[in-house]
Design goal:
The chain is built from 14 helices and 16 strands. The chain is α/β, with parallel strands linked by helices. The structure holds zinc ion (ZN).
Length: about 400
C-alpha cells in the first residue's frame, strides 16, 4: 500500500504524551505520515521526515484525532422502539422488560435483515468517527438465535460479545435460574467459538450476583473475557464481581458504592460510562468525576441499542460527558478513544503514535475541544481506517 502524508493539521491529538502536550499528546501545526495502514510518524510539520512520500492530504488548518473506539454496542436486532421512547418521554419509567419487544422482532427476522441492520449502524457510526466498535448479541436468547447474532456481528467487527444474559426471555419467566444455566451451558457451547467477550446484565430485573458469577466463570473457562453491565438501574454486586473476575470493563455505573469506586480504581477493570442511556431514559448521569478523581480508567461508549440509547454518535456522548458529567473536554476525548481501546484491551487503536493503526478522524474544527463546544454539529469531515479513506462529508 502506498503512503499518505496529512499536513496542515492545526491541532493533532495523538494520545501519546511522548509526542506532544498533556495526556492527549497534542501537537500544534502538525503532520502525520501513514505507511501500510499504520502511523509511521506524527509530529510538528516543520520536522516532517525528508522523503516521507505518498499521497498528500492538506487538512486545511483543521484538527485530527484518533478514530473513536466504541466499546459498548448492541447492533444485532430488528425493529425499533420509538413508541416506547415516546411513552417514556411522557412519564413512564424505563425497565429492563422492554428488551423483550426487540427479542420477539429479532427472532422473527431473517439473517439478511439482521445483517443489513448491523451494516447500516456500523456505517452510521463510521460517519461520526467510530473506527472500532464492539458488538453484543442479546436479542436472540435461544441457543440458535444467540449463535446466529454472534455470527452476524462477527461479519462486521472482531470485537464480538456473547450477551445471552441480557434479559430472561418470556419462555423462562419465573425461572431465571434455569435460563442462567442454559446461558452458562448449551448456549455457551454454541456461542463461545464466535465471540471474544462474555457479558452479563447484572441489575434489577435482569441477573443477580450468583447468576452473573456463574455465567462469567463458565465463559472464562471457555476462553472468553468478561465484561459486565453493572449499576445502571440500581446498586448491586456487578462491579465487585467484574473486578474479582478480571473483567475488561464494567459498564453503566450510575449507582456505585464507595467500595465499587475503590475496586475500579485499584483493579484492571475499565469504568465505561454510557451517557446516551441516561440521556434517553432521562436518568441521573454517573459521577465521572468521582471515578476519575479516584484514579479509575474511564471509557466513554455510545451503548447503541433500540431501547435505551438509540445513537451511534460518540461526538454526542462526548458533549454529554462534558456538559452533564463534568468531564473536561480533554478527558472526554481521551475516554472515547484511548479509554475505549483500554476497555477492549487493544493497544493498536485509540492513539496515533507510530505503529498504531491509521484510524484517523479529521474534524471540521480547529481543535478537539469543538466536539463538546459545538454539540450536535456534524464536525467529522473525513475518516480513514487502516490508512484508507472510508467516509467523507466534504
Ligand atoms: Zn448495554
Amino acid at each position: 500500500m502506498s503512503g499518505l502524508v496529512i499536513d496542515g493539521i492545526a491541532s493533532l491529538v495523538t494520545n501519546d504524551p511522548g509526542s506532544g502536550r498533556g495526556p492527549l499528546g497534542v501537537v500544534e501545526d502538525a503532520a502525520l505520515v501513514v505507511q501500510d495502514g499504520r502511523v509511521a510518524w506524527a509530529g510538528p510539520r516543520t520536522r516532517l521526515p525528508e522523503g516521507a512520500g505518498g499521497e498528500r492530504y492538506d487538512a486545511g488548518g483543521r484538527a485530527v484525532i484518533p478514530g473513536f473506539v466504541d466499546s459498548h454496542a448492541h447492533l444485532v436486532f430488528a425493529g425499533d422502539r420509538a413508541p416506547e421512547f415516546e411513552a417514556r418521554m411522557s412519564g413512564r419509567p424505563y425497565t429492563a422488560g422492554g428488551i423483550r419487544t426487540t427479542v420477539a422482532a429479532t427472532r422473527e427476522a431473517s439473517d439478511d435483515a439482521l445483517r443489513a441492520n448491523v451494516r447500516r449502524l456500523v456505517a452510521e457510526a463510521l460517519r461520526s468517527g467510530t473506527t472500532t466498535i464492539e458488538c453484543k448479541s442479546g436479542y436472540g436468547l435461544t441457543v440458535a438465535d444467540e449463535a446466529r447474532s454472534l455470527r452476524v456481528a462477527g461479519e462486521h467487527t472482531s470485537e464480538v460479545t456473547y450477551l445471552g444474559a441480557h434479559v430472561v426471555p418470556p419462555e423462562f419467566a419465573g425461572d431465571s435460574d434455569a435460563y442462567a444455566e442454559l446461558v452458562a451451558g448449551a448456549m455457551l457451547d454454541a456461542c463461545a467459538p464466535h465471540a471474544r467477550w462474555i457479558d452479563v446484565f447484572c441489575d434489577r430485573g435482569a441477573f443477580d450476583g450468583d447468576q452473573t458469577r456463574a455465567i462469567l466463570t463458565a465463559g472464562r473457562q471457555r476462553g472468553l473475557v468478561p465484561r459486565v453491565h453493572a449499576g445502571q438501574l440500581g446498586p448491586g454486586p456487578g462491579v465487585r464481581i467484574a473486578v474479582e473476575l478480571g473483567a475488561a470493563s464494567a459498564d453503566h455505573l450510575t449507582h456505585l458504592s464507595d467500595a465499587d469506586v475503590e475496586a475500579l480504581a485499584g483493579g484492571g477493570t475499565v469504568a465505561t460510562l454510557l451517557p446516551g442511556a441516561e440521556f434517553s431514559t432521562r436518568s441521573p448521569y454517573p459521577d465521572a468525576r468521582r471515578l476519575i478523581d479516584a484514579g479509575a480508567t474511564v471509557a466513554l461508549a455510545a451503548d447503541c441499542n433500540p431501547g435505551s440509547s438509540y445513537t451511534t454518535s460518540i461526538p454526542f456522548c462526548v458533549a454529554l460527558a462534558v456538559r452533564d458529567m463534568r468531564m473536561t473536554p480533554d478527558e472526554a476525548v481521551w475516554s472515547a478513544t484511548m479509554g475505549g481501546a483500554r476497555a477492549l484491551r487493544r493497544s493498536d487503536v485509540g492513539h496515533l503514535a507510530p505503529g498504531a493503526r491509521a484510524d484517523i478522524v479529521l474534524l471540521d474544527a480547529p481543535s478537539h475541544v469543538h466536539l463538546s463546544y459545538r454539540p450536535g454539529v456534524p464536525l467529522v469531515a473525513r475518516v480513514w481506517k487502516d490508512g484508507r479513506p472510508v467516509a467523507a462529508a466534504v
